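Example 3.2
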Amino acid sequence: MSDEIKELKKQLLSTKKNGYDQDGGVDTAAMEAYCDGYKAFLDAGKTERLCAAETVRLAEKKGYKPYVRGMDVKPGDKVYVCNRGKAVMLAHIGTKSLAEGVQIAAAHIDSPRLDLKPNPLYEDSELAYFKTHYYGGIRKYQWVTIPLELHGVAALTNGTSVTVNIGADSGDPRLVITDLLPHLGAEQSKKPLGSAIPGETLNLLLGSRPMGDEEDTGRVKLAVMKLLHDKYGITEDDFTSAELEAVPAVNAMDIGLDRSMIGAYGHDDRVCGYAALKALLDLEETPAKTAVCLLADKEEIGSDGVTGMQSAAFDTFMEDLCDAQGVPLRVCFEKSFCLSADVTAAYDPDYADVYEKRNAACLNYGIGLCKYTGARGKSGASDADAETVAYVRRLFDDAGVVWQIAELGKVDAGGGGTVAAYMANRNITTLDAGVPVLSMHAPFETVAKLDCYETYKGMKAVYQAEK
């Protein structure tokens, strides 16, 4: 091959390159330090409430103060609002007026899980159980026979709330959902994966030891309720006003002999949420444009509700900041940019038939840029324009961020939704981007450390942009 042809190929053709092969290599020490912090964040935030609380703790440690309506805000101020304990909005006020827009990174901190039903406790065949209602797009067969924890709150009629934590602390018991043994599972094995485990059989096994006399009924249920009352002071009626979530009882850990990956519950989307938060907290200087981090709830079920991205909570937060500078909210939004930070599917060679490899994200190739999400004909997508994609390419290239183009599966086979459309509907220029994930929505997902770190670098580049 002639030198001229080689040069033309280099100039004109796209060559996908592994992040470890990029010019300059990888700052391994910085990457590992970042990922250690991320793993600690995951372990502390296994539910959206716990994640919001950890976010507030980390933010306050970095000088962020609760925002109170009517406060003056000036360049350099760091403020946050925690929305009902389940979503957080933070802002580092920039040197430029809010009339010139803000730089936003928006992610969600809820993950697929099992919620307890309002009347969950029952006994059958001298075994006590909790009934559950699954939250988000789970594959139900993945949730049986794995150890589970229970987290949440029970709100009492006297106005107080009780925090429930079963299974997270050392020495705690765990819960489990049982499954059929193979000797009796012949008929079950004939069913499709989606129907082999009905949703109504996702019942948490709580106990088997009875109390009272032999002729008494409901002895195991009563024994379990007494244990809960002794520890938390709650009665069965209090489940009616409780939010209790069953999540995998596993902490984040390194995966692979080379420790190049992280396995954990909740990468979707706390891997992007942490990147957005950490990048904001690590800003050493006051940014030119105000940097805003939004960590929302309810994305896995459509972003509805008072803590979801479709609520007015974000608009209220931004309007309060704009009012403090005498800027109309609409003027701020039309000049703003949002990186909608949500995970994408990583190419898995074991299931190659559902991916379109030329446009699929791969592990270790950096943060994935998704021009559109949606499904089948881009339904539900915001579909960023060409100028927006070019803008992010430039930001990332200038900051040395490793990135790749990503699409979630083949046309007519894949697709998905995220918060991008709801930000775009506010007249905010928006692009989807995020970390590629293997086994997305499973109780145990896998990501590459390099992609996590590059996503953090990408978020920081967005916050530091002057235009």
